[in-house]
């Protein structure tokens, strides 16, 4: 107890404590200074503004532009239309019969008819009489012609009279053929398989020449006209598959194919009409239905880059490219989105160009950059490991 109360001993202990505190504070100050230096270096390597001030490269990640083939889907509005249509009319008469009387009608509006099926029949009596009259005229002209030819040997008739007899015989045969055609047309038949849209006759009705008896549309297969964008014509071909969604069948998707491409592009709408063919059993799909179609195309030799690389400013699209060790901004023209997270580049980039996909949002024109992302990511991992060992 007396030893501990000795002033000299207490003085020595106090000196040791103060010395230890000073040494600890000094060591802490040195470590804090080292941490600050490391943090400053790290900021210069990772922070774009700090790196720019320190004239050090800004870490970025890039991809190279390459040509490749990819599938694309091009959409457009559509409207359904008949595969073909037929208007059944009464042709001009060849005889004296002015009107036809309808005897029977064998179909209804909206009904289905087959090719060759009789739609309506007319009373044939007057046409049968016309045929008999024309047959008699043919026999008479032939007899006259034979008689004239027999008289030529005795020179009792001239060659001109013989020629007139030949013309009369040919005319009579032509009129007979027309009369037989009129008789055949007493049964009006459907020229196509389809659905009757219009039926303009009823039994005992009298109709004149040129009257429309019926209008028929073929709906199986049904055709679909699509407005295809002009910018995608390079990837369009006959036979390509298409998916169609129609407003009247919201829960269904129909499969079709391209069968025809119009030769003229509309300069106002910048679209080209194309025709799709869709199977339509039982005529479920009617003509005049609107909808939307997607045509599946294969585009070869095209360029696409990750969409994250594109910088949008107003109506312009730009990317940062690496030239040497500097960042250069380029304006590009983009197309449709292809695949997942990719966009097609139509203009502004060449095969082999190096495009920035990470760090481009903080770059300026002509910035010094470091595209060796594997190196600077490992360097960052090493710094984290050292910091964990030192406690900082």
Q: So what's the overall shape?
A: rod-shaped
Residue share in helix: 25-40%
Largest sheet: 6 strands, antiparallel, barrel
CATH architecture classification of the largest domain: Beta Barrel
The percent range for strand residues is 35-45%
Question: Which segments are poorly predicted (pLDDT under 50) over 5 or more consecutive residues?
Answer: 379-392
Please tell me the overall pLDDT: 82
Cα radius of gyration in angstroms: 46 Å
CATH fold field value of the largest domain? OB fold (Dihydrolipoamide Acetyltransferase, E2P)
Specify the structural class: alpha+beta
Instruction: Give me the strand/helix succession.
Output: HHEEEEEEEHHEEEEEEEEEEEEEEEH
Identify the strand order in the major beta sheet: 3-12-15-14-13-16
> Helical segment tally?
5
What would CATH call the homologous superfamily of the largest domain?
RNA polymerase II/Efflux pump adaptor protein, barrel-sandwich hybrid domain
Per CATH, the class of the largest domain reads Mainly Beta
User: What's the number of domains?
Assistant: 3
Gap between N and C termini: 45 Å
**Number of DSSP strand runs:** 22
């Amino acid at each position: 107890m007396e030893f501990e109360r000795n002033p000299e001993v207490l003085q020595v202990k106090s000196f040791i404590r103060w010395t230890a505190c000073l040494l600890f504070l000094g060591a802490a100050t040195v470590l804090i200074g080292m941490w600050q230096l490391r943090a400053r270096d790290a900021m210069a390597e990772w922070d774009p503004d700090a790196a720019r001030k320190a004239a050090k490269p800004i870490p970025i990640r890039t991809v190279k532009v390459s040509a490749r083939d990819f599938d694309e889907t091009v959409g457009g509005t559509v409207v359904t239309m008949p595969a073909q249509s037929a208007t059944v009319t009464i042709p001009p008469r060849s005889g004296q019969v002015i009107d036809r009387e309808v005897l029977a009608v064998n179909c209804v509006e909206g009904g289905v008819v087959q090719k060759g099926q009789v739609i309506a029949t007319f009373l044939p009596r007057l046409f049968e009489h016309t045929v008999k009259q024309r047959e008699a005229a043919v026999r008479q002209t032939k007899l006259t012609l034979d008689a004239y030819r027999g008289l030529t040997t005795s020179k009792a008739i001239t060659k001109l009279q013989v020629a007139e007899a030949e013309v009369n015989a040919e005319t009579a045969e032509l009129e007979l053929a027309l009369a037989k055609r009129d008789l055949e047309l007493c049964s009006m038949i459907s020229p196509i398989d389809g659905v009757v849209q219009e039926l303009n006759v009823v039994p005992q009705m009298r109709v004149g020449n040129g009257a429309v008896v019926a209008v028929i549309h073929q709906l199986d297969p049904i055709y679909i006209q699509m407005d295809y964008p002009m910018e995608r014509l390079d990837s369009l071909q006959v036979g390509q598959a298409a998916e169609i969604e129609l407003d009247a069948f919201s829960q269904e998707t129909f499969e079709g194919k391209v069968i025809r491409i119009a030769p003229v592009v509309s300069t106002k709408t910048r679209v080209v009409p194309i025709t799709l063919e869709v199977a339509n059993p039982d005529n479920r799909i009617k003509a005049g239905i609107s909808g939307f179609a997607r045509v599946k195309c294969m585009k070869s030799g095209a360029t696409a880059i990750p969409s994250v690389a594109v910088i949008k400013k107003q109506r312009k699209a730009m990317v940062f490219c690496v030239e040497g060790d500097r960042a250069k901004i380029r304006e590009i023209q983009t197309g449709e989105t292809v695949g997942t997270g990719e966009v097609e580049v139509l203009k502004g980039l060449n095969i082999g160009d190096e495009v920035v996909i990470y760090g481009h949002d903080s770059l300026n024109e002509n910035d010094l950059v470091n595209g060796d992302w594997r190196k600077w990511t490992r360097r960052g991992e090493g710094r984290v490991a050292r910091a964990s060992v030192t406690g900082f």
